[in-house]
Amino acid sequence: MSFSILLLSAIQLLSSFCPVTCGYNHAKADDASQLRVYIVHVLPPSNAPNAGPTDLESYYKSFLPDSISESGETRLIYSYSEVLSGFAAKLTQDEVDSMAKNPGFVRAYPDMLIPLLTTHTPDFLGLHQGRGLWQPSGLGKGVIIGVLDTGLHATHPSFNDDGVPPPPSKWKGSCEFPAGCNNKLIGAKTFNNSGSGAPDDGDGHGTHTASTAAGNFVQRVESFGLASGTSAGMAPHAHLAIYKVCGPAGCSTSDVLAGLDEAVKDGVDVLSLSLGGSSVPFYLDPIAIGAFGATEKGILVTCAAGNSGPSDSTLSNEAPWILTVAASSVDRNFRSIVTLGNGEKLYGESLNQPKSFKPSSLPLVYPNEGACTVDFANIFGKVVLCDADVDEYGVTASIKDAGGAAVIFLNDNSSAYSIVLRDLEFPSPKLTYEDASKVKRYVNTTRNPTASITFNGTILGVSPAPVVAYFSSRGPSTATPGILKPDISGPGLNIMAAWPVQPETGENGTKTFNIISGTSMATPHLSGIAALIKSAHPDWSPAAIKSAIMTTSYVVGDNRKPIPDEQHLPASFFAMGAGHVNPSNAADPGLIYDLDVDDYIRYLCGLYNGALVDRNVGGVIRRRISCSKFGSISEAELNYPSLVLPPGSTVNRTVTNVGKANDVYRVEVEAPKGAKVTVTPATLTFSKVKEKKTFTVRVTGGKSGLAGNLRWISGRHVVRSPIVIVGDAKDL
Ligand SMILES: *[C@@H]1O[C@H](CO)[C@@H](O)[C@H](O)[C@H]1NC(C)=O
Ligand SMILES: *[C@@H]1O[C@H](CO)[C@@H](O)[C@H](O)[C@H]1NC(C)=O
Ligand SMILES: *[C@@H]1O[C@H](CO)[C@@H](O)[C@H](O)[C@H]1NC(C)=O
Ligand SMILES: *[C@@H]1O[C@H](CO)[C@@H](O)[C@H](O)[C@H]1NC(C)=O
Ligand SMILES: *[C@@H]1O[C@H](CO)[C@@H](O)[C@H](O)[C@H]1NC(C)=O
Ligand SMILES: *[C@@H]1O[C@H](CO)[C@@H](O)[C@H](O)[C@H]1NC(C)=O
Questions:
Q1: Which residue ranges in the chain fall short of pLDDT 70?
Q2: Are 489 and 522 in contact (CB under 8 A)?
Q3: What is the pLDDT of residue 73?
């Protein structure tokens, strides 16, 4: 597995519901007198709801036993003001236990690591210079994208500022690079509770994601001699603000919260987070909490859906105020053809395509049924078959040492048609599960099996495309089953983008662009596209931008068939979200499903409707709340652009006209099989821009899991919302 995917699949966060003294009970095995970093949630100061940062800091300090521990360490690490009511501090468990007696205490848990979730893409998405969404948005001019990641390789050519104006006056951030920043890279800061240093990217992940979102134009880019062309991010003239909150091991909760807090203060417009833990209730989820604070300030937060697919209910970052991004393929292959001794040709892919490799017939071996863990004594000059997702780097190194000619990696039934490429610096084609089965059958039935390999470079126009990648995490959501998640899919398989120059690796010592995979790579595509929309419509709320992206997405692929998943079966909405992003249409959606902070609060009051509801909702929204006074709604009633409906339910939705003043929309329902969906009224007539109209959706019958679509159609717009039935009719 590639680095980024590995990091995501190793996720561990708080896993169970814990009401008050959450989290730290899990650490009982540790020495209760050992000092460690805790995140502490507290009630906001009651007498000063609008306390400034200094007041807050002294309030937070009042929870601490002293400002310096016995061992001489400063207790308070971060004092949060924008996105969390609370702080990060060095404490022992015993000290947390006694702090819990303070009436303002809500909960505390130890700092944890959140994993990172790890180009041609502009063309594939219909972005071309001089037309498409790049036209009305001025390439993202004036919009600031904040990226929380592993830092940035600031001298990379993708971060040149040709054509980028100075940052808007609202920008308050600063630059910690000794060499300073420029109009493209307007700010950069490090948040590391156990160290310090410039926000340099020692990893590559942060440089890759930032350049995907907003890299400027770079001519004649290639990697591995493949994929040559002009490189650009989604919003080539947007500004970048970098918050280094992750290191090689992952990103600590306290640092992520500090980065979010700072980004909100600095004045970013869009946030991009290619990281995430496993599903927990939102009041225990630092990204959900931090994203709520950002949303309240008008910032759209885009997050990776996770790399734990293809199993169900494997999502990260599920809150409805977050744009949750799934990963799919693009129409590009790095083709490598394996011709078996019987003449059968199998079309695989490889990043390493040595020109010196001779396409002659070579003996083919299949050591311990693909496990490739035994000795490689007898493989000199042979082609070795190995299962994909063994330690591909380690196995390849052993085969190289033993004088093997090449390795062919074989997908299993879970990765199926998704080929995830890795830089193995060795001839290493990888085959789909279907082709892997053919090779295995051939080897099994042939006395002296042989194969020859040719490398055929970059192929465009590959069909089908897009295809949801096997690793992309799937719904239904665990944290909020009544909201359809993920929200959207974008390119995340074998994506080329900027990479720090690492003299010890790469061809002839320079790898300034690299090809990697993950929902980490899909996320900055969406944050860049969100920046383009924000640039074209500066007054749109985060929910409006989300709605525009979701309702204009597409579900039919290049071959006029439904977008498939890794098995080449029609992808469900729980795999691809509402559909695949269509940037050109997203700037002109016609209607939007808007939401404000009060809507989210009523939703939270409904979601946590139990004894601790006020405490749990308060933990997310950073203020004291009485849900019984404020009111609550069910998940289905949230004015979300997609619908998860129990059979027999009736919900309202309200749309806002953002197209031309006078327009008429009529409804078209593609009901889930066996269900009847009635929409009233069936026609919506608008006479003003920003006019709102409410309609009612009633569902009867239908079986859990079946899906359909609701479309509002006018002369120039189609506004599509997916409908998924959950629960069975007999429950009613
Ligand atoms: C923080 O700094 C420490 C000490 O320099 C370093 O070991 C660690 O990797 C850094 N962590 C991050 C997330 O950068
Ligand atoms: C492969 O996985 C799919 C989806 O889980 C399943 O339907 C199919 O039966 C599996 N095929 C084989 C050969 O195991
Ligand atoms: C190869 O042959 C063996 C023995 O005939 C059989 O058990 C095995 O399932 C076969 N494997 C494949 C992949 O066909
Ligand atoms: C693949 O490349 C080889 C030479 O490396 C060439 O002979 C062959 O025609 C190519 N095949 C395709 C399908 O492009
Ligand atoms: C690497 O350098 C060698 C020697 O200068 C040259 O022949 C070769 O083409 C270079 N390879 C690439 C990919 O640039
Ligand atoms: C839905 O809208 C209709 C018509 O505007 C209204 O009468 C009804 O009370 C609404 N229902 C809900 C559940 O809000």
A1: 1-31, 47-49, 118-133, 136, 220-225, 227-228, 502-511, 728-732
A2: yes
A3: 86
The reported pLDDT for the residue numbered 28 is 43
Complete DSSP assignment for 540-588: --HHHHHHHHHHT-B-B-TTSSBPB-TTSSBPPHHHHTT-B--HHHHT-
Cα separation values, 548 from 14, 300, 594, 727, Å: 33, 13, 10, 28
- Where helices occur in 362-474 by DSSP H, the ranges are 392-401, 433-444
Beta bridge partners of 454: 337
CATH class of 341-448: alpha beta
153, 205, 208, 237: which one is catalytic?
205
CB of 456 within 8 A of CB of 337?
Answer: yes
User: Around Cβ 172, how many Cβ atoms within 10 Å?
Assistant: 11
The residues of the chain that CATH labels 2.60.40.2310 are 639-732
**Three-state secondary structure call for residue 271:** strand
What does the pLDDT read at residue 117?
Answer: 76
Tokens of residue 428, six digits: 């290493």
Looking at the chain, the domain(s) classified CATH 3.40.50.200 span 121-330+473-589
Three-state DSSP class for residue 61: helix
Distance CA 42, CA 88 (A): 11
The pLDDT of residue 599: 98
First to last CA, the chain: 45
* Among candidate residues 550, 572, 562, 534, the one with its CA nearest the CA of residue 487: 550
Nearest residue to 721 (alpha-carbon basis) of 581, 578, 583, 608: 578
Per-residue confidence (pLDDT) for residue 126, from 0 to 100: 60
* CATH number, domain 639-732, options 3.80.30.20, 1.10.4100.10, 2.60.40.2310, 3.30.420.140: 2.60.40.2310
Q: What pLDDT score does 314 carry?
A: 96
CATH for 121-330+473-589, among 3.60.21.10, 3.40.190.290, 3.40.50.200, 3.40.50.300?
3.40.50.200
CA of 318 to the centre of ligand 1 (A): 28
Q: Among candidates 641, 553, 467, 562, which has minimal Cα distance to 126? A: 553
Would residue 541 show up in a list of annotated catalytic residues for this protein? no
pLDDT at res. 129: 61
Cis before 466 (ω within 30): yes
How confident is the model at residue 496, as a pLDDT? 87
585 CA to centre of ligand 5 in angstroms: 43
Which two three-digit tokens encode residue 656? 């806002």
pLDDT at residue number 729:
53
Q: Are strands 513-516 and 430-431 parallel, antiparallel or unpaired?
A: unpaired
Does residue 225's CB lie within 6 angstroms of at least one atom of ligand 5? yes
Q: For 367-388, what is each residue's pLDDT tens digit?
A: 888 888 877 778 999 999 999 9
What is the DSSP track for 447-502?
A: SS-EEEEEEEEEEES-SS-S-B-TTS---S-SS-TTS--S-EEEE-SSEEEE----
To which residue do tokens 């690299």 refer?
514
| Mutate which of 603, 639, 652, 692 for ligand 6 pocket (most atoms within 8 A of beta carbon) | 652
Q: Compute the distance from residue 257 Cα to the ligand 1 centre, in Å.
A: 16
613 touches 627 (CB < 8 A): yes
User: What number of other Cβ atoms are within 10 A of residue 588's Cβ?
Assistant: 17
The region that residue 518 occupies, defined by phi over 0 for left and psi between -120 and 50 for alpha, beta otherwise, is left
Atom of ligand 6 nearest to the CA of 694: 5
Instruction: Please tell me the distance from the alpha carbon of residue 485 to that of residue 320, in angstroms, as a whole number.
Output: 8
Q: 207: which strand partners?
A: none
CATH 3.30.70 domain locations along the chain: 18-111
Identify the CATH number of the domain defined by range 18-111.
3.30.70
SS3 697: strand
0.70 exceeded by pTM: yes
Which residues 6+ apart lie within 8 Å of 138 measured at CB?
A: 237, 535
Q: What's the confidence (pLDDT) of residue 418?
A: 96
